[in-house]
Amino acid sequence: MFKSLLVRLFGFQATLHHGDALVWDRWRWIMRRLRVTHNDDRLMDVGCGSGAFTIGTARRGYRALGLSWDERNQAVAQERAALCSAKNATFEICDVRKLNERTEWIGAFDILLCCENIEHILDDFLLMKSMAACLKPGGRLLLTTPHLHRIPQNFMDYGPFPGFEDGRHVRAGYNRAMLAELCAHSGLTIEEISYISGPISQLNAWLLWQIGDRSHPLVGWAVVLLLRPLPPLFDQLLMRLFGFAPFCIGLEAYKPRHSSAPSPEKPLGAS
Asked: How much is the pLDDT for 271?
């Protein structure tokens, strides 16, 4: 497989760069919010795909468990974890819509990741509450999802959205108010809401999709590879100067250690 060949040649970084530039953006967002640990902290990656973030967090010291319903993806993830010497990365088949049924995970994790997953789930309130239940008191949730007002990448992002789950998005995306509503429902306190992937990253993703669809995915990957250094330099600046909508919205939330903690409806320090 070409993607695993890249991992063999270039190691962990290849798991972040074989796809669109938005994956790398999300990983940089995670790294800024996830300290390196030697404390045996447990992390769950909800909807881990082919395991890049599970592997990456294991390399940062976490005992990382990646969940996915897809057996093929989990096999690829296991292979890549071995190639990257990520011994603390493990993977399990799990339908995250039924996460609430896994009672052995209640209060067991210091960190939960949920990246580009919740927009595929009809009962997002149940998923959010289930993830909060898996956190220890004082644990943190890092979640990314498409921004409600982003520029759509393809015609499917315009809808109509299905009333059933078949792998597509079931809603247009999320904004700050919607994430605050989910946190209030789940007993989580918002630490920060931020934005990920500006116009250059979005252009890279669009080019990869367009060129790969019309010629070959390798051609699209090669073209976009040359543009990858640009987003960290210019995306944030362009969003600030010209008001470009981000592609993703990111949530960092905290599970209070005490029942008398501040109300989860409002971020700390908010007016």
From this structure: 37
Whether the model clears a pTM of 0.70, i.e. scores above it, the answer is yes
Q: What total number of domains does the chain contain?
A: 1
Residue 261 is assigned to a structural domain of this protein: no
User: Residue 44: which of 132, 166, 125 has the closest Cα?
Assistant: 132
Domain hosting 21: range is 2-199+247-254
Q: How far is it, in rounded angstroms, from Cα 265 to Cα 112?
A: 20
Cβ 235 vs Cβ 200: under 8 Å: yes
Q: Where residue 63 sits, what CATH number does that domain have?
A: 3.40.50.150
What distance in Å separates the CA atoms of residue 56 and residue 93, rounded to the nearest whole number?
A: 19
Q: Which of 239, 158, 229, 227 lies closest to 197 in space, CA to CA? A: 239
262 touches 209 (CB < 8 A): no
Q: Is residue 147 part of a domain?
A: yes
Read off the pLDDT of residues 195-250 as tens digits, 9 standing for 90 and up.
Answer: 999 999 998 888 888 887 788 777 887 788 788 888 888 998 999 898 888 999 99
